[in-house]
Design a protein that fits this description.
heterodimer, A: mainly alpha, two-stranded antiparallel sheet, about 75% helix, globular, B: alpha/beta, 6-stranded mixed sheet, 4-stranded antiparallel sheet
Chain lengths: ~850, ~260
């Protein structure tokens, strides 16, 4: 017996030794792999940022920055034709247009979104809650081009007829649609935040005799404020970055509304300018568009940074964790060393990114030279029968013995960029780390002094001495009276001269009327009995929810009504479009202008005469599938690294911030990057370029999904596994990852739906209206380097180029909607399945 | 009024039955709770003592499939009557929860929340209430200089006392406490117990506790519950020294539970 026990022990000990050794090596190599993937993802992010900046820099070297931001005339093509004066790039009206459209959208979306979120989370009975949540998810799945279709047909007609306007394509139209599009973001983020307010808090309020509405408005909403703020800011990001819808419905007039409150004026946004102009732009004009792209990027970056700041502030307020001040010298030293280290690492990452940007720039210069070379030869009269790329140009030039292009120069250029980048950025990063630390110390000392004053009780209210305080008190006491007087003054003054018809000039007064009216209502509301307050408040919430339901229903219904006959007609889904017919040929030449002749011809056509959409469906599926295949491995591995391995510190925080920022970056910015980094170099749009662009766009989503999925797994699971002696990677791969997999998979399918519905990134990287229809083309190189069709792009072109092809547009819209929504449905079903299965 | 003066009981229950869905949580409870006293309810986990205390200010209304039968009389009026005003009942019967749950606001706003909910907006009156409640909760000296700090920054014991001060802000007649010290350390527990004894002067306190020593230390009356039934109710000394029922004796001597 004794010997048997001994052998068992021996066996166990040998097993232990074996596993520890082998697991340590796998652990290390996995850690390395994950680190590489995470760095790769971060590198991609920095490369995108810096490359676009360097291109914009080129523009500002040639064009005064003041004229760009303040100039009111945008005339990029003035040197063509008879007018020989220099082109002008005054982007003021474009930037203002962007902001106006976004602000208008937010004014509609914020009250509607928050009210709907509160209604869903706190008021609605269970069944209605499920219906509303589903509706909001459907809304999130509707591609932007379909909103554009809706805005250009139904909303346009409504505005034209009801308000007797020349055109319904205007600021209001765009803002309204963007508001609806921003709703899912706002509602879902706000609802999550409201949902996560502990029941304990609500009980405490109810137990004191508060009504449900008092509990909601005074406890739940303040407690959920951080999430609500985040939702609003993210919604704003969505509204600012939207391209296709605004291009289709905002009227595209580069003017400032006259007066500024005229919501029926056409405007043009940055995104629309990019979408409309980049294909035909070259030289300075193209560079000016990069500058616009950078402006858009910076605006969205600022929004993201503010969101982060607000979130951390409020979080600190509610958890009561204030920043601890460090007075221990050792710790200060340690912190300083840490900051220096992180500065160096961040500097290294930035430096390498600079190097890659240098590489891209060099490549672009070479490819531009190649073009010039072709032109020169053509001028001489010789014909080149092949397209020429930078590399071929290099070969050709050396074989001709003419212009020399020493390879050494090329290598040196790249190397120089790397070295300069690293040499500049590493010390800069370290210096920034050091300075920010010193600044932090300084702020702390100031704060301590301020606190000291507070403790003594010497704090005085601002303006006490000069009596402002009393004025304020009087106003507060008489607020209701003041408000009432204001309201009626405005109302009578307005109604005496104008009765109801809208004059654009009156916008500002209407705004004042509305604001004072709202304040008056709030003033009265606050003095009602709590029970009556509750009835009114719940009624308002219900109305908001009904409005949302109504518009989602209207959009989906109108798509079905317009598209169903075409969709059901024979061959629509299985046949390719007729790319050989005259119409399409003509469209390519004239781009958006369609001659009367073609219009006439079109009227005689039935939808199916233009062929089916089989090619478009296949193109969309290919783009979706391949971009996801590119993004998923990098994204998941980087997400695992961030969640499980990365130590919290300045570096990780910077990386998170970069990922979050990229997630909030408008998709057209990715399109711009894909265009300049891939399309210009490969000399043509291609499936490959589109795939990469979409993959870059979706990468941050996948990283975030993975990280959040893993973060949601209780730490105790991991501890249980680690306590049994298993390695970190083993714990992750066998315990944490399987548990998080459902969340990750549903996230990926949602991402697929988003990719399938995107138009902006493929607009100038991949999409074509008329191209091949060969399902097997992707097996060949030509398939990858050739353009591809896509449902979204096809619909976009149809609506802008063929105003009379309504029936066909409806069919395409319905096909697209069904395709995207089916992906959302799969994700939804998977999620509810896993949620039921989940037993922890 | 006359009748009320004669009636020594502030809360009485008659044939109280309660179900969560299909399972019955309270069975035929008869219980009379005297005024200006501390009543402790003890019993093993899951015996229904928390459910019972939540009946008294209708907090079970929050739970979806909860069904209540029988009468609960507060000053002789049934709080489960159809026309009963839940809000006014809750403002007359306050509640302290197991886990301290201050609102994520400043200390001052936590205390003024109740009055503001009942539409007192006068700033001076609110300030008075804050001082008064903090004094009653024996934490005025600690808190007077940090009224604007977030309540979340307080320690667990301080948070729970703040919750008591918050409950006092609307001047209730009864204070229900649902295991108020189970999340606290012995020192904080001691302070809360002291506070309970002081509150007895003006309020009626009903406390649910796991801790039998606590019940013996502070309460005047004790009820023992088991599997949803009130096994025994009486003066604390009598329950602990001379229990009438075998079950009570077994529980108190630690033979089960």
């Amino acid at each position: 017996m004794a010997s048997e026990v001994k052998t068992k022990e021996e066996l166990l000990s040998t097993i232990k030794e074996d596993t520890t050794e082998s697991t340590i090596t796998t652990d290390k190599s996995m850690r390395g792999l994950l680190l590489i993937m995470a760095s790769l993802a971060i590198m991609i992010i920095f490369v995108i940022i810096f490359y676009l900046f360097s291109l914009a820099g080129d523009f500002f070297n040639q064009y005064p920055i003041g004229d760009f931001f303040l100039g009111q005339v945008w005339a990029p093509n003035r040197d063509i034709g008879n007018d020989i004066s220099a082109p002008l790039f005054g982007a003021f009206n474009i930037i203002m247009g962007t902001l106006l459209v976004a602000i208008g959208a937010l004014l509609i979306a914020i009250p509607l979104g928050i009210a709907t979120a509160v209604f869903i989370a706190e008021v609605a009975p269970k069944k209605i809650k499920e219906i509303l949540k589903g509706t909001v998810e459907v809304l999130a799945g509707i591609p932007s081009v379909i909103f554009g279709y809706f805005g250009r047909t139904i909303l346009n007609d409504f505005l034209k007829i009801q308000l007797a306007l020349d055109s319904g394509l205007c600021w209001l139209n765009a803002s309204f649609l963007l508001a609806i599009m921003a709703l899912p973001t706002i509602v879902s983020v706000c609802e999550d935040a409201i949902d996560s307010v502990p029941q304990d808090l609500k009980n405490a309020s109810l137990a004191m005799g508060a009504t449900r509405w008092q509990t909601i408005s005074k406890v739940v909403i303040p407690a959920a404020m951080s999430g609500i703020t985040a939702g609003i800011i993210l919604g704003m990001g969505r509204a600012l970055g939207e391209t296709i819808t605004v291009t289709m419905v905002a009227g595209n007039q580069i003017i400032l509304p006259e007066p500024i409150t005229n919501v029926f004026s056409g405007v043009q946004t940055i995104t629309a300018t990019l979408a409309l102009e980049i294909k035909n732009a070259s030289g300075l004009h193209r560079e000016s568009l990069f500058a616009l792209g950078i402006v858009l990027f910076i605006i969205s970056l600022i929004i993201n940074l503010i969101a982060n700041l607000v979130l951390s502030r409020i979080r600190r307020k509610f958890t009561g964790k204030s920043k601890k001040r460090i007075f221990n010298k050792e710790k200060i030293k340690e912190k300083r060393i840490n900051l220096l280290k992180s500065g160096l690492v961040i500097g290294l990452i930035i430096g390498i990114s600079f190097g890659i940007v240098g590489l891209l720039n060099t490549a672009r210069v070479i490819s531009d030279l190649g073009l010039e070379f072709v032109i020169n030869i053509e001028e001489i009269g010789e014909q080149l029968e092949f397209s020429i790329s930078g590399l071929e140009m290099y070969k050709l030039s050396s074989s001709l013995g003419g212009i020399r292009f020493p390879l050494l120069v090329l290598v040196w250029e790249v190397l120089r960029s790397f070295l300069v980048g690293i040499a500049i950025c590493m010390p800069t990063g370290a210096a920034i780390g050091g300075i920010s630390h010193l600044l932090g110390r300084l702020m702390n000392t100031i704060r301590i002094k301020k606190d000291h004053i507070n403790e003594k009780g010497n704090r005085k209210k601002l303006g006490d001495e000069i009596g402002i305080h009393y004025v304020r008190m009087i106003i507060r006491r008489r607020k209701g009276i003041v408000l009432g007087v204001l309201f009626f003054a405005f109302a009578t003054w307005l109604l005496s001269d104008w009765f109801l018809p809208y004059y654009p000039e009156m916008g500002i007064y209407y705004a004042l009327l509305i604001v004072s009216g709202i304040l008056l209502i709030l003033f009265i509301f606050k003095r009602l009995k709590p029970k009556i307050q509750q009835i009114f408040a719940f009624a308002m919430l219900l109305i908001a929810a009904i409005i949302v339901l109504f518009f989602v229903g209207l959009i989906v219904y109108s798509i079905f009504e317009n598209g169903l006959p075409t969709f059901l007609s024979q061959g629509f889904l299985t046949e390719p479009s007729r790319s050989d017919s005259n119409i399409f040929q003509n469209l390519i030449i004239n781009d958006l202008d369609v001659s009367d002749e073609i219009k006439e011809y079109l009227r005689g056509l039935s939808p199916i005469d233009m062929g089916g959409v089989a090619g478009e469906i296949i193109g969309t599926l290919e783009l979706t599938l391949f971009s996801i295949l590119f993004a998923v491995p990098i994204g998941i591995l980087a997400g695992i690294y961030l969640s499980e391995y990365a130590k919290e510190g300045p570096i990780t925080r910077t990386i998170r911030l970069a990922i979050a920022s990229l997630n909030g970056t408008p998709s057209i910015v990715f399109g711009l990057f894909g265009y300049v980094a891939i399309v210009l170099l490969m000399e043509g749009r291609s499936l490959f370029a589109g795939t990469i662009t979409l993959a870059l766009m979706i990468l941050p989503v996948i990283i975030i999904t993975t990280e959040e999925g893993l973060k949601a797994i209780p730490q105790s699971f991991r501890e249980g596994s680690l306590a049994l002696g298993s390695s970190k990677w083993h714990t992750i791969s066998k315990i944490a990852l399987p548990a998080a997999l459902p969340a990750i998979i549903t996230g990926i399918i949602l991402a697929m739906g988003r990719v399938a519905g995107e138009t902006a990134p493929i607009l100038f990287t991949a999409a074509s209206f008329t191209q091949r229809f060969d399902p097997w083309a992707i097996l060949t190189l030509d398939g990858w380097t050739g353009e591809t069709q896509a449902l979204t792009f096809h619909l976009y072109k149809l609506i802008l180029g063929f105003p009379d092809a309504d029936a066909r547009a409806g069919g395409v819209a319905l096909t697209l909607l069904l395709l995207v929504l089916s992906m959302y449905l799969v994700s939804f079903l998977l999620r509810s399945y896993y949620r039921k299965k989940k037993d922890w | 009024m006359e009748q009320e003066m004669k009636n020594p009981y502030i809360i009485e229950t008659r044939n109280l039955n309660l179900w969560y869905g299909e399972s019955q949580a309270l069975k035929d409870i008869h219980m009379n709770i005297p005024k200006n006293s501390i009543t402790a309810i003890i019993g093993p986990s899951g015996c229904g003592k928390s459910t019972l205390i939540r009946v008294f200010n209708r907090m079970n209304d929050v739970i979806d499939d909860c069904k209540t039968e029988g009468e609960v009389l507060f000053h002789g009026e049934n709080i489960y009557a159809k026309r009963a005003n839940v809000r006014s009942i809750r403002s007359r019967i306050g509640m302290i929860f197991q886990n301290p749950n201050p609102f994520p606001m400043s200390i001052r706003d936590n205390i003024t929340y109740g009055p503001r909910v009942h539409q007192i907006f006068d700033k001076e009156l609110l300030d008075e209430i804050v001082v008064d409640c903090l004094k009653k909760a024996a934490m005025y000296e600690e808190m007077k200089d940090r009224l604007e700090d977030s309540a979340m920054a307080l320690s667990g014991g301080q948070q729970q006392r703040l919750c008591i001060a918050r409950a006092l802000s609307i001047d209730p007649e009864v204070i229900l406490m649902d295991e108020p010290t189970s999340a606290l350390d012995p020192i904080a527990t001691g302070k809360i117990e002291e506070l309970c004894k002081a509150l007895k002067e003006k309020y009626t306190v009903i406390i649910v506790t796991h801790n039998m020593q606590q019940a013996a230390r502070i309460s005047d009356y004790t009820g023992f519950m088991y599997l949803g039934e009130l096994i025994e109710f009486g003066k604390t000394e009598q329950i602990f020294e001379n229990p009438q029922k075998k079950l009570t004796e077994n529980y108190i001597t630690g033979r089960f539970g």
